[in-house]
Each structure stands twice: as structure tokens, then as C-alpha cells.
Amino acid sequence: MSSLVSTQIQLAARPQGWPTHDDFRTVTVPLAALEPGQVRVRNEFVSVDPYMRGRMNDARSYVAPYALDETITGGAIGRVIASEDPELPVGALVLHQHGWSDLVQDDAETFRAVPDLPGVPSSLRLHILGMTGLTAYVGLTAIANLQPGETVFVSGAAGAVGTAVGQIAKLLGASRVIGSAGSDEKVALLSEKYGYDAAFNYKKGDVRGQLAAAAPKGIDVFFDNVGGDHLEAALDAFNDGGRAVLCGAISGYNTTERAPGPDNLANVITRALTLKGFTLAAYLHLGAEFQQKITPWFAAGKIAYDETIVDGIENTVDAFLNMMRGANTGKMLVRIAPSEATEQDTITNA
């Protein structure tokens, strides 16, 4: 019997409205000796993401809800520290979906080995070089069929997906990219670092008016991470034949009452618009195509990123709650590797 224990975060209660610390529980689980075909992994980074809020509800969705009193699953990356499988030796860097824990062990087939990239933090596999970047790419290509010269509007543009969308849209030939964000600092970052041609602070109100001023010739593609008043604004701004990529609706994730629908849905008819939602699971076959694009872009210094890092598995709930409130710039991550840092910090590249 191993003397190692795994610290894990479980869902203790289904949140009503905004989640609180009382909805979660931290437990320690003794780890048994490895069985043949199993590996033990020490996580380096754990992901916290907006979609996790939806899985905390007991409601129909594209994936089963989290079970009460079970560890919250999701993306993480770590290194094999013990192995009973020759395909995943000690030291291998692996991605997995075992989620909010510092140590995890399971069958080797539940982990995917990825190569170490010299000078590249392993955390990037959880965002711009991984599922986050792929989400942006799929939305712009497979869903929106973005064409060179088109104008793109991105809601929640300073988040992990939004910062990826803006950059990839420009690299795919968009002539103008417009973003919304929740602070003047983030608005400046979009323009100065991420190549957005225009950006505005939605917290200053009148999203329709601000978008109209930023896109006087209208928009062709809307990549939506927010929903609500942003979707209404886009419906007003669309040119004929416009396409909305419905990726998320974080503005309504913590509401307890049904929000009213857009008041301008008739534009979908009169302007021949397309509104299409998607989840990434149906498009994983585009992963290789995405890697063929993102790898040379990244190597050429054409991709920027930000990470907001919280240290310690015990602070995972704080990281999640802060992310839901928009406190992050770029990707919010929990760092599990030993560190002297105890405060949240933001890491950027040039």
C-alpha cells in the first residue's frame, strides 16, 4: 500500500445562482499500489473553465452533469511519477481529464502523452496550443466559414478563447476584428497585444451603441462567449449573410431565472443570418489540421498569450470563482508544482 495521498476537490452541493465555497469540498484520498497497466501522475497545471459551471447543474446538456461527492473532472497536465505501463514511462508529460487534484492514478489509456517543447511551458497545452486554441479555430473555420476580408466581432475577447479567436481570425485573413472586454485595461490589451482593430468596455453600457461605433460597416462573423446583450448587439450589426458562432453564454450561467430572448430575432430572417452552436467534442478530428496551423504560427512569434496563475490545489475553488467573475486575463490555471508564490499572478509573453 502506497503512503501517498491525493488532494482532490469535489462537488458538495449544486450551486443556486453564483457558486460559493460551500458548494465544494476538499478531500484527501490514499493512493493504492499501482496495478498492471496503470500510471501515477503528479499534475503541473489544472484547468478551470466556464463550461464547468453548467456541469454543476443537474440538467440536460451535451455532457453528463458532475456527480455530487465526486471529484470535479476537467483538463490537466502533469508528469508520470510511477508507471506499470511501458508506453507511459516515468517522466512522460501527459494530458488528461481527471481534473481537480494534485496526484492522480488510473489506467494508462486515460492519459495522452505529449512531447516536451523546448522553452514552452507545459501549461500552454491547456489553452492556446490545446483545446482552447482548437475551439477558436473550429469556430472560425468549421462553424463560421470565415472568409478573407470579413469583419469579426468577439464577445468576452480578453478570456482564453477570445484572445485566441482574435489572433487566429487575423491570421486567417479577417480584415477587421472587434472585441468586448470587462475593463479598460483589458480593452487596451486587446488592441496593443492581441491585434484587435477595435475594442470596447461592455461594463460602460450600451453594447449595441458601442458595437455600432466600432463596426460602422457592420460585422460578418460573431464569435459569442457571452450571450445576452452581446448577441442582441450582434443581431443589429450583422451584414446580410452573417454567421454567429455560439460558443458560450457566460452572462447567464449563474442566473436563477430564465432571461428574456433577444428582441431583434427577426433580423435572422430579413438578413439571412445563421446562428449555430457547437461543442468541441464533435470536431476533435480537426485537431491535426489545427496543429499544422498553430505550430508554425507559434514558432514564428505570431501568437501571444496571457496566463493568470493561482498556486496550490487548495486554491482551485478560488481560481474558478475568480474566473467566473472575469478576474483573469487570458487563461486561468491552477499550478500544482511546488512554488513559493501564494498570490494570483498573471504571466504574459511578448
Structural features, described:
- 24% of the residues lie in helices and 26% in strands.
- With 350 residues, it is an alpha/beta fold.
- It folds into 2 domains: 5-126 and 305-348, Medium-chain alcohol dehydrogenases, catalytic domain (Quinone Oxidoreductase, Chain A, domain 1); 131-282 and 292-296, NAD(P)-binding Rossmann-like Domain (Rossmann fold).
- Strands 3, 4, 5, 6, 7, 14, 15 and 16 form an 8-stranded mixed sheet that branches. Strands 10-9-8-11-12-13 form a 6-stranded parallel sheet, sandwiched between helices.
- Helix 5 packs parallel to helix 6 (229-237).
- The N and C termini lie far apart (47 Å).
- The model is unreliable at 339-343 (pLDDT under 50).
- N/C terminus separation: 47 Å
Figure out the total of helices: 9
Strand content: 25-35%
Low-confidence stretches: 339-343
Helix/strand class: alpha/beta
List keywords for this structure.
single chain, Rossmann fold, 26% strand, eight-stranded mixed β-sheet, Quinone Oxidoreductase, Chain A, domain 1
Outline:
Helix content is about 25%, strand content about 25%. The protein has about 350 residues and is of the alpha/beta class. It is globular.
